[in-house]
Amino acid sequence: MDRFLTLTVFAKVVERGSFAGAADDLDLSPASVSGHVKALEARLKTRLLNRTTRRVAPTDEGAAYYAHCKQILQHLDEADGMLAAQRESPRGTLRVLMPPLLGTLIVIPAMPAFLQRYPDMRVEITLAVHTPDLVGEGLDLAICVTPKPDPGVVFRPLGLAAIRTLASPDYLARRGVPATPDDLAGHDLVGVRVSPGHLFSTWRFQQDGKPITRDFECRLVADSGDAQRAAAKAGGGICQGAHYAVQDMIESGDLVPVLDDWSWTGPPIGAMHLPNRFLSPKVQVFTDCVRELLEGRVTPYRVDWDGG
């Protein structure tokens, strides 16, 4: 039997002083109300109510039990109300991981307005590019660029992080514009090492709707996307980067896209969180915020995306 319903029925009988009154208030039959009370007394092996033809009143034990029941029911109502309020105004600390350039260029500048909109929230942002252990790292959410999300988590695609190939106008004036990916073998290339032993030496392109790769030795290697962008802007060579991370430099003219006919439309960028039947309001509103910030900076996600 539903213990919550049973406690609710018992408390209502005490308050109304009758089974019929409790039945009316709870939209139950008098027989159902009586059955709940009898089951409760049987489980507790204690008589909780004195019954007469005119009145139902609690025994001493019943009065004491009612006081506890009322407190429990009030706490449950408060908990329900708290969650309902959170749906309207999310609250608490959100711990989120995301790629460094996404954070510094796009998300973090938008945080003052976000926190003003949700004054009961705190946001802790970790900037990193690894695929996180959400539980081990104590994260509520991760914004990741990955073609193969971990099957043990929920991955909500926000778009496709199109990969652009770029160089400074000065470099291209000196060295010429490559016509095909294979031409890059004769150019100075700027790579990025995101962690010890993890050098992005594989360059990704697309031909006839299918992804293709080329491996090159980079002449200049930086350990962050910011440093890579700075090196390319200074004329150090050709680099690759996600469109959202280089859009500002394209618009300013600091970097010029090359090989656009070969640009890869992937991989997916998305919000990663643990499976949960009811998505936390703070996770939902932050994910919605990032989705809005990425509009126009990523390619719309396709459900049939297969790497091309």
UniProtKB/TrEMBL annotation:
A biological process term (GO) from this entry: DNA-templated transcription
Domain HTH lysR-type, first and last residues per copy: 7-59
Keyword Transcription regulation: yes
Keywords (A to Z) from UniProt: DNA-binding, Transcription, Transcription regulation
Pfam families: HTH_1 (PF00126), LysR_substrate (PF03466)
UniProt keyword Lipid metabolism present: no
Record-linked PROSITE patterns: HTH_LYSR
Gene3D superfamilies named among the record's database cross-references: 3.40.190.290, Winged helix-like DNA-binding domain superfamily/Winged helix DNA-binding domain
Molecular function as annotated in GO: DNA-binding transcription factor activity; sequence-specific DNA binding
Source organism, top-level taxon: Bacteria
Similarity field: Belongs to the LysR transcriptional regulatory family.
PANTHER family tied to this protein: HTH-TYPE TRANSCRIPTIONAL ACTIVATOR TTDR-RELATED, HTH-TYPE TRANSCRIPTIONAL REGULATOR
The protein's name in its UniProt record: LysR family transcriptional regulator
